[in-house]
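Researcher: We're teaching a course module on how sequence relates to structure. For the next exercise, students receive a sequence and then see the predicted structure as tokens, so they can try to spot secondary structure elements on their own. Here is the exercise chain.
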Amino acid sequence: MTGLIIEGKTASWEVICGLEIHCQIISKSKMFSGASTHYGSDANENVSFVDAGMPGMLPTLNEHCVYQAVKTGLGLNAKINKYSAFARKNYFYADLPQGYQISQFQYPIVGEGHVTVDLSDGSTKDIGIERLHIEQDAGKSIHDMAPDKSFIDLNRAGVGLMEIVTKPDFRSPEEAGAFLRKLRSIVRYLGTCDGNMDEGSMRCDVNVSVRKVGEEGYRTRCEMKNVNSVKFVMQAIENEAKRHVEVYENGGNIEQETRQFDPSTGLTKVMRKKEFAHDYRYFPEPDLLPLVLDDDYIAKVKADMVELPDAKRARFVKELGLTAYDASVICENKETADFFEKAAQGHDAKKVANWLMGDFFAMLNEKKVELKDSPVSAENLGKLVELITSNVINGKTAKDVFAIMAETGGDPEKIVEEKGLKQVTDMGAIEAIVDEVIASAPDNVAAYKAGKNNLLGWFVGQVMKKSQGKANPAIVNKMIAEKLN
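Model: And here is the predicted structure for the students to work with:
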């Protein structure tokens, strides 16, 4: 797939982009303290002395956060570093009480890897992972509650983060969007991050530069901080790249700086001139020993891995006969994939997929409920499909039965039995209705025989009406065609 090419007055320009994604680690307590990570608590409710930066308070590493980072690294096809070390990243801000952030700098826990993304033209592309390191989050500054004050909430201070840094491999907003969706899917499958960008548990810094088509090397990049949706990331890349082209085309130069993306205008504005690593005066964290992992520990984490979206999708195509598109949609979300697999067990998987992606998803949207709260269970969806496959009911009746299931959560077999909805497949009973309909419409019979073939549908409709929709449509079609011809 070709990347985004921006046509300027003097040259064609291509976009170069890399992402830094902060994923909040799913863990009951913070990275270096026992304080809760519960989202939605009252301000400053989940704060320990360590999080508040009180003198003499020492950090203690949360082993579960290490486990989650290693698990994520394996999901990114990345190298797990047996030796990693913590460092202090020094900067001063009101929501960072210690005056530094405990992070990893020179020795991250996870090294290089890659993620394969699927693009809209059917092609795939490998996006390189530079590193994954773990660190503590800062608190939250709130500037819009009073005209002359800022408020600080330290509930988030000290929460464990995984920072995933990609290589500058993106050449279009679409590629970046596809990567973020795939990454979100992977961490959700693994249970290492909930991926909720709107709650801030997955945040993205976007680095953008441009260069002339055919030019080697990289030009100066700008970084947009904390972009909080896939859509906004894609908009930010495109608009920032166009800004760079405009500056270069007008004879100017791009300065390395940190910018803020404004979703209401789609534009970026300067926050500050870009810092470099030495500005943070990194030095080894004196209160934490280096982290040393052995082969047994990594093997134990590997043994706990679940089947990831790409593997599951390939299996659904190969073993269950789904199309690549259907499998992609179903496997994007682990809960959906698990629900589908349960519903399809012992039934026609392709028909189950059609019902899931059609009437079932429409029902969830209409009721505004999550999959976990669905009134229609996986087992009952599978049973409904089986009733159609085995000709107990036809497609039209199935929709009526599904509507009742959506309201009552009932078993489709019982609904069909109680309402007397079983399909009529008795040839004699159907033939009697067909003969009655044909005998009652001599004019239409004559018109059909004179060449009005579309009247076949009218005859079928009349028979279905007289049978109250219970006659098997395939038998009805065949029988009417034979009698009229």
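Model: If you want an answer key for the exercise: The first helix runs from residue 63 to 75. The longest strand covers residues 12-24.
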